[in-house]
Amino acid sequence: MRETDFVSGFAKGLKVIEAFGETRQRLTIAEASKLTGLDRATVRRSLLTLSELGYAVYDGKFFTLTPKILRLGHAYLAATPLPTIIQPHLDQLAERAGQNASASVLDGTEVVYIARASQRRVMSINLTPGSRLPAFCASMGRVLLAALPESEARSVLKRTDLRANTPNTKTDPEELMAEFRRVREQGYAVIDQELEIGLCSIAVPVENDRGQTVAAINIGAPAAYVAASDMAERFLPLLKETQKALRLVLP
Amino acid sequence: MRETDFVSGFAKGLKVIEAFGETRQRLTIAEASKLTGLDRATVRRSLLTLSELGYAVYDGKFFTLTPKILRLGHAYLAATPLPTIIQPHLDQLAERAGQNASASVLDGTEVVYIARASQRRVMSINLTPGSRLPAFCASMGRVLLAALPESEARSVLKRTDLRANTPNTKTDPEELMAEFRRVREQGYAVIDQELEIGLCSIAVPVENDRGQTVAAINIGAPAAYVAASDMAERFLPLLKETQKALRLVLP
DNA sequence: TGATTTTTGTTCATATATCGCACGAAATGA
DNA sequence: TCATTTCGTGCGATATATGAACAAAAATCA
Known about the structure:
homodimer
């Protein structure tokens, strides 16, 4: 790609939009400038452009994103068959399990939720499509990392901030690599309160008809309700069934 | 705003992203150019910029959005308190009603889903946060339009493509205005298969502590399961309760 | 409170990057 | 094969980014 094939004004504008995600609803020009590292004048132009297009509003002091901004993310969700195909299976899975079920894909060091069926509220975090969690300590993340070549998985870990969310969080790279091997062999991953105290989850890969892992699905349950050691016995058959159904419909 | 305070490269890039929402997953440069009305060279630069930033991938022929694009919409969902505050109430509502519950805000002539708790699958459409429906024929849309001054509601209708989705869809502007008045008086809106055959829904406004309508919540149910005439009796108390709880927590 | 400092929003001039057109090459399809 | 469509690229005209400059607004302090 040539130098001139890059629209830096566009890239900067996207950076400005993402700046809103890092903090709160309202940003001043100076705040956005600090968060993005861009010049105040440049940020101002981006923000005024967003306002002009209806993606943001400006009260003379603060800029606020409007729901119109959701069109951008939705362009992906609507355009990509994966979430659409998975959603009904997920709904059914959640209903039969009586617990929350989710689907996600890997994006760098994080898992991104692309679909979700909630049955009950157990997590303190509000997860919706687009939500992100560190891959190394999430059940779906383990499954997705296990599907990568070892060298790539190791590279992801290297780039990850391996911070412990709970006392249970595994943070040693070698231990995690061993865990990935185990996950690859047994075909599923169980997380015992590594992300949040009181929450266990179990995930399996979603494969297309060529056997490539294209996503992961999981079921989460309160630790008080299902012990980590019982997760597989309790939910693996349901997950496997959904996995099998998806393999038949994914191109 | 001055001419020079508008970054057209940014605006064009956003238009390109939205072009993906209108059709399918993969777009060639020429397709994106047609969809956006922008010059091919311009579209190409935007797409290459998206690829360079990891928001899209290019296989030499087709461009495809990546999950990273969800960060943009998520910047809104994470930054705006509304979805986060509403979600747990919605989960509870859906569980108690045994039906799907959703929350949305108005964006132009459409309602935009900002949160959703699904209990079962009744709609053919896959609704996730960011999904859009025409406001005039959705229960939440009726509630949100009823909350506008009559002149504004009329203006929205004027800009709306009043196409009938089903034989039940009300499309006469005067009839709709009368419906808005009724909704305003009774404090809720019921839709009887105007959007999709077999689907009824009931919505109430979500008000902040100053009584301003900031969103709407609804419950949808299969027409075969609950007749439209029974929707209010069946679900209005639950909706009112959630509405009241939200009024206390919304700033 | 009032003076002083810091931060912020805005403007400006200019060097630089982008836009859209036009053209030829390559791919597609009949 | 030829006709049609799609792509990549060079170029001049035009739009944008930049950082300094300045006024206004906050914040700080005496």
